[in-house]
Design goal:
There is one protein chain. With 245 residues, the chain is α/β, with parallel strands linked by helices. The protein is built from 6 helices and 12 strands. Strands 6, 7, 8, 9, 10, 11 and 12 form a 7-stranded parallel beta sheet that branches. The two termini are 25 Å apart.
């Protein structure tokens, strides 16, 4: 039987006791009806699953003891960073959730000239915290033990300046010559995939991308929506160069 995995933002080690946060305790005790003596699995993003046993349970809290630790080796050898123009409403949540399940190492939300979503200050901080919780839930479900990095939204020019100089940089273009099959990506390569907003990249944004070394990648003859394009590109690259069988 598969044990429920819950996230705990705290150091975890064999023999140590951990007090579960309200959300995790509530899920285990009230939703799953677990009690003292029952087993669960914790993770904190360190790359391991920490097997635990509930040793105390209250109405709203629970304490567990870590009984074993197991390294999880299900991260893709292809390190993918999704550079995503901000999307409206729940579309961004969908992108974060599914990109996490597909194995991205990071998500960099960017403000584009044609983008309709503008975030700054406290509102941006709240959205990043929300997206991180979405990613954590996706890790719980998918079995990942490392949480992808989610950057704060920032202008495209600033995000491009912060990219690793060794990264391979691709932007979806239905008229490009290169396809996922024709790329020559080395082992343990870092790939940045740039996905434009619902209205597409502006000429100014395209100039910034070209100046930063981005080249076109063609997935097929159709134009995909912003919430579909990145996920399709991630899946194609994982199938060709990553860990999709």
């Amino acid at each position: 039987m598969r044990l429920t995995r819950v996230f705990v933002d705290a150091p975890l080690s064999v023999g140590a006791a951990a007090t579960l946060p309200d959300s995790a305790a509530g899920h285990l005790l009230r939703v799953l009806r677990l009690g003292v003596g029952d087993a669960c699995v914790l993770f904190n993003g360190d790359g391991c699953d920490h097997h635990a046993r509930i040793v105390a349970a209250g109405k709203r809290d629970a304490t567990v003891e870590i009984v074993a630790t197991r390294a999880i080796g299900n991260e893709s050898p292809l390190r993918i960073v999704l550079l995503q123009a901000l999307a409206r409403g729940e579309k961004m949540d969908w992108i974060v959730q599914k990109a996490t399940e597909l194995g991205v190492a990071g998500i960099a939300p960017v403000l584009s000239e044609r983008g309709e979503v503008k975030l700054d200050g406290e509102r941006a901080d709240k959205r990043v915290a929300h997206w991180r919780s979405v990613a954590i839930s996706a890790c719980e479900q998918s079995g990942r033990a490392r949480i992808p990095q989610i950057d704060a939204p920032q202008p495209l020019s600033r995000a491009l300046a912060q990219l690793s100089p060794e990264s391979r940089r691709l932007a979806l273009d239905p008229e490009a010559d290169a396809t996922s099959a024709s790329l020559d990506l080395g082992a343990e390569c870092t790939v940045v995939i740039a996905i434009g907003p619902e209205g597409g990249w502006s000429p100014g944004d395209l100039a910034l991308l070209r100046g930063a070394g981005f080249t076109g990648l063609r997935l097929g003859p159709r134009v995909l929506r912003t919430e579909t394009a990145g996920l399709a590109a991630i899946a194609a690259l994982q199938a060709r160069y990553g860990d999709f069988a």
